[in-house]
Write a structure and sequence with these properties.
Layout (H helix, E strand, L loop, with lengths): L8 H14 L4 E4 H8 L9 E4 L3 H13 L3 E6 L6 E8 L5 E8 L6 H4 L1 E5 L2 E5 L2 H11 L2 H12 L7 H10 L2 H12 L1
Parallel strand pairs: 2-5
Antiparallel strand pairs: 1-2, 3-4, 4-5, 6-7
Helix pairs in contact: 5-6, 5-7, 5-8, 6-8, 7-8
Length: 185
């Protein structure tokens, strides 16, 4: 589903997700789009996803995206960065999707816990609620904490608190402490 103008990064994400599926690359939508699935809808022009590839496979994905007509920019994170690499994908309208690879502390099973969500007649894989909350606690900014609280409070189904605590601890003590604040509010 091609974007027809600016402000349609979500449609660009559908095209990128189709390419990822063709190449059997696991992905999970994160960020504000995932926040809108797990809590109240909030407006954004951003589209972000985690991908389960790194190194040479990420560079091959970059080539595949260029071949499909997209502009790309690959940035490697420094040793202390929580994100190993970021592959930005842009279309001719200025829409952008950020593919994040190698998130430090992410449980490898996060991709298997992702949920499938219908979107514009297609489907997208979105990070599961527990993983989303843990990631937001790790990010730790004011909006991240609000997103984590909303996701926790808006849950229709039971949240696995033990899993949530385990996932948060993988990101470090500060993330685990933020989670406890979210749980107690």
């Amino acid at each position: 589903m091609k974007a027809r103008g600016p402000g349609q990064s979500a449609l660009l994400l559908l095209d990128v997700a189709a390419l990822l599926a063709e190449r059997a690359i696991d992905y999970a939508v994160v960020g504000a789009m995932a926040a809108s699935i797990h809590g109240p809808i909030r407006g954004t022009a951003d589209a972000d996803a985690l991908v389960s590839v790194a190194g040479p496979k990420l560079r091959q994905l970059q080539k595949n995206l260029k071949k499909a007509g997209f502009s790309t920019e690959l940035r490697q994170g420094a040793a202390e960065d929580p994100i190993g690499a970021l592959l930005a994908v842009m279309d001719k309208h200025g829409n952008r999707v950020d593919l994040l690879a190698g998130l430090r502390g992410l449980d490898a099973q996060a991709f298997s816990r992702a949920i499938t969500v219908p979107f514009h007649g297609k489907s997208l894989r979105v990070i599961g609620r527990e993983d989303f909350i843990a990631m937001k606690c790790f990010a730790g900014g004011p909006q991240d904490i609000v997103d984590a609280r909303h996701a926790f409070k808006a849950a229709q189904e039971r949240i696995d608190i033990d899993l949530l605590r385990r996932l948060s601890r993988r990101f470090g003590r500060p993330a685990a402490d933020v989670l406890e604040q979210v749980l107690s509010s």
